[in-house]
Amino acid sequence: MSMPRVIALALVMIFVGFGIGYAVTAPRHPGAHSVDVGFLQDMRFHHDQAVGMALILLEKPTDGANPNLRVVAQEILLGQQLESGMMVDMLGSWGQESARDEEIPSMQWMGESVPQDQMPGIATPAQIALLQAAEGAEADNVFAELMTTHHEEGIHMAGYAEDHASNVGVRRLAHSMVVNEQSDIAELARLAPAG
């Protein structure tokens, strides 16, 4: 074999070897249409409403209200904000937007495509207005009812992500959401049984 052919063959082998090595060692991030990214973007939106509902309750006068339910609302507020921060960090590290375009349907990643504001568990504007208007024990009950429905549907989403996401960090986060929100639901039922 001639020297130019040997050099050409060697260069091809080096190039192929480099390509294989890069493919094996390059970090793999979930893509824009993955379960991982879709879940994190949609759950951020979901969490934002839970935080908003907790704030509404926490800003109300405490007369006639259950102070222990306010503790649960505070825990929901802090826990969901912490998880939202984790989701933003993950998405940013993958070069993905922290929120999807509102024109793009939510939950496509789990085969249940819906407009963002109609995701299961999202309270309607009328339900939010009812929570804003309620006082005392009535506010506790409205909050508990809305948050229970909100969490039940969040658990549905997180359970799917736990089973289908490709990234281990997303699967772990989804699992912790399931556990935490199940605990919240049990506390809400105990503290506002008429809700």
Q: What do these coordinates show?
A:
The protein is mainly α and 195 residues long. The protein has six helices and no strands. The chain has helices at residues 3-25, 35-58, 67-93, 125-133, 136-164, 168-191. Helix 2 runs antiparallel to helix 5 (136-164). It is elongated. Mean pLDDT is 88; it is low at 21-26.
Could you write a compact summary of the structure shown?
This protein is mostly helical. It contains six helices and no strands.
Key terms for this structure?
195 residues; single chain; elongated; mainly alpha
SS-based class: mainly alpha
Alpha-carbon distance between the termini? 85 Å
Shape by Cα distribution: elongated
- What low-confidence regions span 5 or more consecutive residues with pLDDT below 50? 21-26
Overall mean pLDDT stands at 88
- Roughly what percent helix? 55-70%
What is the CA-based Rg, rounded? 23 Å
Please give the structural blueprint:
Elements: H1 3-25, H2 35-58, H3 67-93, H4 125-133, H5 136-164, H6 168-191
Helix pairs in contact: 2-3, 2-5, 3-6, 4-5, 5-6
